């Protein structure tokens, strides 16, 4: 509160006055009779909390809060319920999440080819207005979950549908897209079209495109899709914020933004409808002739246009992050994750498999070591924190190597680098996260037996590597500061299910018996660490830890009330937690009908 430039003695006097004044003046709102889980340094549990002017002015017991309870103070009796810091989602894609809530969606479900076809046909039949040139966009395709395991989907699968329209089906992972033949033609993809940098056109034995596009190759079709209109962008942002409030998310990072998204959120912010603190990471992409310098300059231009300055009580927008992609995804059939050693292939038969090292270990990393080093230094100079997509162990290692160099420079010391995903990390690299102060941002919900782990990862990795996939507790035990990011809409937005998996490493009870039990022999994370990852540690990656992430005096009143106690219920029940109340800057932005 007190700015620098004042003599020390005066600062002391002023702060004493401020404290005395603070203690006497009644609070706006008092929460009492609660299980107030603070996420302070000791993870202490208190009974009561008071808020004034959007900030926390008291955390302690019921007796102590009486002094702050005046005639006009609103008193909320928590009736023993758990109050905790609001969730901070350190990696998500709110705009595509929100807009997918408005598209033809396959809902992340495992589908047979027949079901896949009939679902899309239903969408086509419903949309009678669109002409034969209009793309049908299908989203949330659980590509790894197609049934039976390993079944092929190609343009022919979609050509069987009754339509003249080009179709694009986007995998929920965001790393592949399937086109029908009309789509392939519309995108002008022929056997002579080269693979773009950072992408792959899947081809058959004769060299013809099969319809499946990986990573950057998706742009051949995606660039042809009509951009969302201003109204659609606004609708997507609104839908995203509504979903977040209900889950208890009070701050998020858009891990790959664009000006249209930031424009939509700016509009909502101006209307007072921004109900979460919004952070945006701008993509640094050295394709198309950009240099590290020009890419960072473009980022700063967007920052100038959209960043609204330091965190304040009412939610606002900050642009202080860069997004970089080092690779794609490690699971089949993409294999675009950059691995140290080759993916295995089956040199036997389906009945008598013989898994041996295959011909490749994923693509070259999307940044060369030299380009990554230069880019990180440029970003550090511009006070921008890098948020790097790394899925395979080689992408992780190369990023850590570049950060090690960065740390040796004066501007590199203050950087807060985050490595997102880290699905597989070579054990030799575990301690480097703590040594280099790099935060892994993990999606806990991936650490469960599922078609994309047991089905699309196990055999291709081999037993040694499979034993350490999704190394959440392994990194934690090596001293890393773990933060959480949902990566929505790669999965449905379900933070409480994700936190449950963080603890148990088990699938949902109704996932089927082939997915019963834990993912590998690795331990889950302790509950307190799981909550810290989605509160204070995620706040740290956003440079917001002095204002949020824990319930402590002076911090913003960003908090949630739960319908059951995260710490005392059986671990499986964590997935069923419902948020009753979401408070941002002291203001209630969501209240469930069950909160009396
Ligand atoms: Zn992501």
Give a concise summary:
This protein has 596 residues and is an alpha/beta fold.
Please, could you describe this protein's structure?
Keywords: Signal. This is Amidohydrolase family protein. It comes from Duganella margarita. Residues 74-590 form the Amidohydrolase domain. Residues 1-22 form the signal peptide. The chain is α/β, with parallel strands linked by helices. The chain has 20 helices and 26 strands. It has an eight-stranded parallel β-sheet. β13 (199-203) and β14 form a beta hairpin. It is globular. It starts with 7 loop residues before the first helix and ends in a 5-residue tail after the last strand. The relative contact order is 0.13. Zinc ion (ZN) binds next to loops.
SSE inventory with pairings:
Layout: H1 8-24, E1 29-32, E2 35-37, E3 45-46, E4 48-52, E5 55-60, H2 62-65, E6 74-77, E7 82-85, E8 87-92, H3 94-100, E9 104-105, H4 113-126, E10 136-141, H5 155-159, E11 167-171, E12 176-179, H6 181-186, E13 199-203, E14 209-215, H7 219-222, H8 230-247, E15 249-254, H9 259-270, E16 277-283, H10 292-306, E17 317-325, E18 344-346, E19 355-357, H11 369-381, E20 385-390, H12 393-407, E21 418-421, H13 430-435, E22 439-442, H14 451-455, H15 458-461, H16 463-466, H17 472-477, E23 483-484, H18 495-504, H19 527-533, H20 536-541, E24 559-562, E25 579-584, E26 587-591
Parallel strand pairs: 1-6, 2-7, 8-15, 9-10, 10-11, 15-16, 16-17, 17-20, 20-21, 21-22, 22-23
Antiparallel strand pairs: 1-4, 2-3, 4-5, 7-24, 11-12, 12-14, 13-14, 18-19, 24-25, 25-26
Helix pairs in contact: 3-8, 8-9, 11-12
The structure holds zinc ion (ZN).
The site of zinc ion (ZN) has 4 residues, from loops.
């Amino acid at each position: 509160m007190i700015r620098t430039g004042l003599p020390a003695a005066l600062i002391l006097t002023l702060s004493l006055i401020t404290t005395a004044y603070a203690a006497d003046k009644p609070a706006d709102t008092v929460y009492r009779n609660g299980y107030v889980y603070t996420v302070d340094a000791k993870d202490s549990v208190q009974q009561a909390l008071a808020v004034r002017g959007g900030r926390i002015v008291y955390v302690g017991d019921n007796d102590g809060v009486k002094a702050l309870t005046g005639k006009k103070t609103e008193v909320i009796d928590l009736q023993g319920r758990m109050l905790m810091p609001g969730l901070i989602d350190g990696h998500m894609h709110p705009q595509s999440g929100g807009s997918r809530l408005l598209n033809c969606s396959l809902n992340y479900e495992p589908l047979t080819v027949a079901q896949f076809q009939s679902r899309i046909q239903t969408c086509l039949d419903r949309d009678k207005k669109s002409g034969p040139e209009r793309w049908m966009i299908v989203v949330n395709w659980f590509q790894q979950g197609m049934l039976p395991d390993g079944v092929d989907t190609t343009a022919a699968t979609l050509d069987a549908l009754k339509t003249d329209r080009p179709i694009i089906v986007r995998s929920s992972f965001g790393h592949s897209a399937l086109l029908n033949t009309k789509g392939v033609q519309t995108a002008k993809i022929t056997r002579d079209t080269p693979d773009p940098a950072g992408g792959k056109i899947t081809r058959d034995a004769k060299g013809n495109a099969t319809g499946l596009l990986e990573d950057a190759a998706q742009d051949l079709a995606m660039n042809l899709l009509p951009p969302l209109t201003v109204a659609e962008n606004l609708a997507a942002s609104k839908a995203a914020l509504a979903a977040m409030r209900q889950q208890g998310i009070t701050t998020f990072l858009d891990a790959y933004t664009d000006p249209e998204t930031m424009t939509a959120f700016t509009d909502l912010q101006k209307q007072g409808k921004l109900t979460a603190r919004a952070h945006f990471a701008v993509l640094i992409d050295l394709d198309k002739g950009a240099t590290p310098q020009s890419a960072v300059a473009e980022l700063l231009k967007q920052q100038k246009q959209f960043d609204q300055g330091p965190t304040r009580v009412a939610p606002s927008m900050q642009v202080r992050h860069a997004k970089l992609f080092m690779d794609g995804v490690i699971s089949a059939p993409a294999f675009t994750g950059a691995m140290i050693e080759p993916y295995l292939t089956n040199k036997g038969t389906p009945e008598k498999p013989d898994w041996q090292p295959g011909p490749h270990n994923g693509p070259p990393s999307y940044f060369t070591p030299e380009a990554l080093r230069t880019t990180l230094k440029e970003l550090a100079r511009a006070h921008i924190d890098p948020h790097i997509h790394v899925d395979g162990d080689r992408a992780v290692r190369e990023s850590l190597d570049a950060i090690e160099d960065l740390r040796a420079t004066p501007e590199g010391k203050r950087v807060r680098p985050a490595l997102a995903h880290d699905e597989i990390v070579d054990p030799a690299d575990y301690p480097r996260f703590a040594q280099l102060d790099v935060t892994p941002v993990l999606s806990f919900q991936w650490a469960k037996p599922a078609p994309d782990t047991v089905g699309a990862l196990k055999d291709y990795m081999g037993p040694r590597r499979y034993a350490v996939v999704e190394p959440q507790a392994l990194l934690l035990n090596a001293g890393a500061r773990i933060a959480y990011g949902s990566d929505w809409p790669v999965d449905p937005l379900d933070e409480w299910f994700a936190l449950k998996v963080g603890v148990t490493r088990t699938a949902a009870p109704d996932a089927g018996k082939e997915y019963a039990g834990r993912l590998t022999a690795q331990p889950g994370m302790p509950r307190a660490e799981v909550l810290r990852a989605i509160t204070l540690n995620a706040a740290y990656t956003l440079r917001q830890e002095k204002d949020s992430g824990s319930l402590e005096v002076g911090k913003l009143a960003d908090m949630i009330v739960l319908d059951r106690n995260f710490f005392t219920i059986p671990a499986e029940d964590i997935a069923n937690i419902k948020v009753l109340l979401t408070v941002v800057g002291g203001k209630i932005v969501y209240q469930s009908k069950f909160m009396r």
